[in-house]
Each structure stands twice: as structure tokens, then as C-alpha cells.
What we know:
The complex is a heterodimer of chains A (about 325) and B (about 80). With about 325 residues, chain A is of the alpha/beta class. Chain A has 10 helices and 13 strands. Chain A has 2 domains: about 1-170, Peroxisomal Thiolase, Chain A, domain 1, CATH 3.40.47.10; about 180-315, Thiolase/Chalcone synthase (Peroxisomal Thiolase, Chain A, domain 1), CATH 3.40.47.10. In chain A, a hairpin with a 3-residue loop joins strand 12 (about 300-305) and strand 13 (about 310-315). Chain B has a single domain (about 5-70), classed as Orthogonal Bundle (Non-ribosomal Peptide Synthetase Peptidyl Carrier Protein, Chain A), CATH 1.10.1200. Chain B is built from 4 helices and no strands. Chain B has helices at about 5-15, 35-50, 55-60, 65-70. Chain B starts with a helix and ends with a helix. The mean pLDDT of chain B is about 90. The interface of A and B includes residues 32 and 210 of A.
Amino acid sequence: MAYLKYISYFLPENKLSNNDLCEDTNDFTAEKILHKVGISNRYRVNSNQFSSDLGCSAAEKLFKEYKVDKADIDFILFCTQSPDYPLPTTACIIQNKLGLNKNCGALDYNLGCSGFTYGLMIAKSLIDSSIANNILLITSETYSLHLEKSDISNNSIFSDAASASLITNCSKNNILDFIYGTDGSGAKNLISKKNSFKNSSSKNSFFMNGAEVFKFTLFEVPALVKKIIEKNGLNFEDIDLFIFHQASKVVLNAIKRKLKIPDEKFFNNIIDIGNTVSSTIPVALKDAISKKKIKKGQLVLIVGFGVGYSWAGTIIRF
Amino acid sequence: MIEAGQFIDDFKEILVEEEDISLKTNLKDLDSYDSLFVLEIIQFFDEKYSMNIEVQIIQESVTLEDLYKRSFNIN
């Protein structure tokens, strides 16, 4: 049965503060960005760092931190929307960089904020169908490469990072049942056309209709949470901690208010890290564990939602 | 049906700090007006009236009266 065993994450060295963001503009102030977006710092890759590099760094941290024998890895799932190249598959590059066995399966999948929960869903399926036993799930994003420097709004939100998780075949299961969904009518509301075949324009290549994405979140996510709890035969009160995709302060607060989640059951670490897209949930899980916000036996509900629109959520029993 | 006076009171209570707003108030003149104000209005309509307001209505409303009339389909 599928067991989420270990999580590590990697942040690039470059920190971008609110003061840095406001250097060349009079339209924003550092205080206003913090007040509105709820983020103090976000991270940026160097000019020679790409999603495979971040992903490998996160995986190496995982191997070292938990003394994982890399020879045991028999599948890599790599989630990114900023692959090193259109082809080959970045997961294949990672297999070689990490020195993993050649009998290791490797695939990329293109999802954003729902990427980690989707990855868990795929990993669980691969283990439950006896296809793989030790799955390395990597989420890695360099959204900064999609953004124009002048786009202060999106630069204030998005952050580069990677996570690596090990999901193993175990006698017990700690990844409960999923609810997932898709609404492609929202594709136009969060889109990057940079270096694409359909529209190769490099100008205004990244677009987010914040109001429409917010509406999607406000009306879809609370219903999704209720469905996840119901599917697992639980009650709202049974959940010990809620960890949502760390989109922005306004989104997180809106979900918290609508679901009436008490402060002690709501985890939020966006202020120091920013929105790392598919890595926000594993980064938050890791931080919550480190801060002892999650204790053994507790139930943690996780929900990823956003670009696509795409969403997926489940409950982890720690 | 929400009366105009009630709408202004609700709007003041949740969204703005100014005391002297009326239906003629230009939304862009409010201190709290910025790019995230639209999101706050969406949340306001959901919380207060359980309404899923169209983003276009907010974006096209110049005054509070526009927002009130278009949201509640008042001619």
C-alpha cells in the first residue's frame, strides 16, 4: 500500500525582497505588497539553474536527510511547467543526473498548483497496481522564467523551488482517498505563451486574470474540501490540520473564512517562501512537521488547485 | 432584494474606511481601491448575499450605484 514516507525541499539562494521588487517603480511599496499579498520574500534561480537542477537538489537533500538508498528508486514522477527543454523528458535527465538505476520509470507531467496532490494520486496508483515500489515524486518550478521583470504583481507572488518526496510500498496506507477535477474553460485565465508553438510572442507572455482565478478558488475549493472529507467517511472536526496550496494571502484567508477553519487547524507559510506552485503543499507539510504542528496519527487534509483549472485533494494520516 | 441603504451600510462595514460614501461614490476614489479590490468585492457578495457576482460587472461599474443596480438587476 502507498505510504508517503519522507519530504524534503530546496530553495535557490537568491532571495527577492519586497524592497527589491519596488526598486524601479513608484506604483508599489514594500509595505503595500506585504499587506496585500502577504509575502515578504520569494526565491529566484540563477541564470544557470533550471527545473532539473532544483529537482535534483531537492532529491539529493531527501537522500541525505533520510539516508535513502537511491538504488531503491524504481520510478520518478516529475511535475513542472518549466521543463529544461520541450524534449527530452526532464525526468530522464534527472534519472541520469541523480545516478538512478536504468530500470527506473520516469515521466514528466505538466500541472501547476494541483501537481503535488496529482503526483500522490499517480504514485498511489502505481504502487497499488504493483508497478512500482519506491517512487520519487519531484515538483520543481521556475515560474520566474515565465515572467517579465516589469510584471510586479506576478513577480510578487511566484517563487522558484522544488520538493522531493518518497512514496513507498508499505504494509499500511497513509494516503487516503482523492477527489480531483478539471475545468479547462479556465485555461485562458492563467496562461504562459512564452516559447510556445501556438503563440511564440515573447511580449506579455504570462497572463493571470486574478479576479477569475480567485472566483474559481472561492467557489470550488470549499466544496472540494467537503467532498474529500465525505469520501473518506470523516467529519470536518476529524481533520487536525488543513494545508491548502499557498496561492496568496487573500486566497488563503478567503478559504479559511468560508470554511470557518479555526486558526490552530490552518497552516500558512506563504510569508517567507511565496507561491512555489506545485511545491507549496510539500513545503508546507515539511515546515508543519518541523514546527511540530503535525503529530503522529493526525489527519492532514491537503488540496491543490489552480492553473488549468485543475484541482485534487486528499487526506494524509501521519 | 437588498435595499440601497442596506447595501451601502454592508459595503461600508466590510470594504471601506470612509464614512461618507453614497451611491454616487466613484469606486476608484475609495482609499481601498487597488488591483485586489475586485477580489474583495467578489468575497463581499459571496459572504453577505451568497452571490457569485460576475467579474465583468465589477470591472464595468464606475459608481457604487452601478455596482448595486447591475448586481441586483435593478433597472
